[in-house]
Design goal:
By secondary structure, the protein is an all-alpha fold. The protein is 94% helix and 0% strand.
């Protein structure tokens, strides 16, 4: 028969082991959640980057279009001034 102290120590060690395992399981769950959120953030950033690139590509003709309109307006003004 084992002394009561040995049984008590064994029970305490089992309780500590269970507590540590529960703590590790909680930490793994929290880390998995953080990884998932990081992946979602990466996807969102990639999506925003693509949308921003598309907006920048679509914006480039605006200054050229403004210059063409300015030249056309100058041409019309010169044409009207020459016609009078």
């Amino acid at each position: 028969m084992t002394p009561p102290e040995t049984t008590s120590v064994a029970l305490e060690l089992a309780e500590i082991r269970r507590t540590v395992e529960v703590g590790f399981t909680e930490q793994r769950g929290q880390l998995a959640l953080l990884v998932q959120r990081g992946d979602q953030t990466d996807k969102t950033l990639d999506d925003h980057e693509k949308r921003l690139d598309a907006l920048e590509r679509a914006r480039w003709p605006l200054p050229s279009l403004a210059a063409v309109c300015g030249v056309a307006g100058l041409g019309m003004a010169l044409w009207q001034a020459a016609g009078r």
